[in-house]
User: Fold this.
Amino acid sequence: MKKIAKAIPNIITSIRIIGAIGIIFIEPFTLAFFLVYGLCGVTDALDGFVARKFHLESKFGSILDSVSDLLFLGVMAFKIMPTLIELLPIWNWIIILTAVGFQAIAYIICAIKFKKFSAVHTYANKIMSAAIFFYPFSFIGFIPAIYETYVAVFGTVAIYASIEINLIHLIAKEYDERNKSIFLVKRNERKVVEEK
Assistant:
């Protein structure tokens, strides 16, 4: 029973993986799409909450969460990319690609420096994740002023979040999930020294 309890966050994450694969076979911007998409979003928020609340965090869970996030984002890009290519102006693409580029660099730095395939989940990163999650809903009604402005506002947050993660990886001596902001790195390193 204890093993099953420890696996609950990973089971929740696995539901997101299954949902992401399911989205491949669903037409975008339909009711079925938004239902499965919503389920994936709920599991994304729930797995980490359950792991932290019940002290069920694990290295495997952290890696599985990152892999499921990348898979989900990849599937979403595949499904809605034709619509985005058709509708978004070039300045929206510059914002999106800048954010994606900095995020990719964060994973590379973490892999090289800390030998981990992960990136710390900062407060700004959580806002960015929520904004990315809600983005497809901005296409309901297909009103350009809504979905273009959405990219401008939350794309800027995404660029900041990605740059912050890079800076955290560069200045931190060790990988530390508690680094929820660039301003907490030194404080958390002092705590690690005090705990030793």
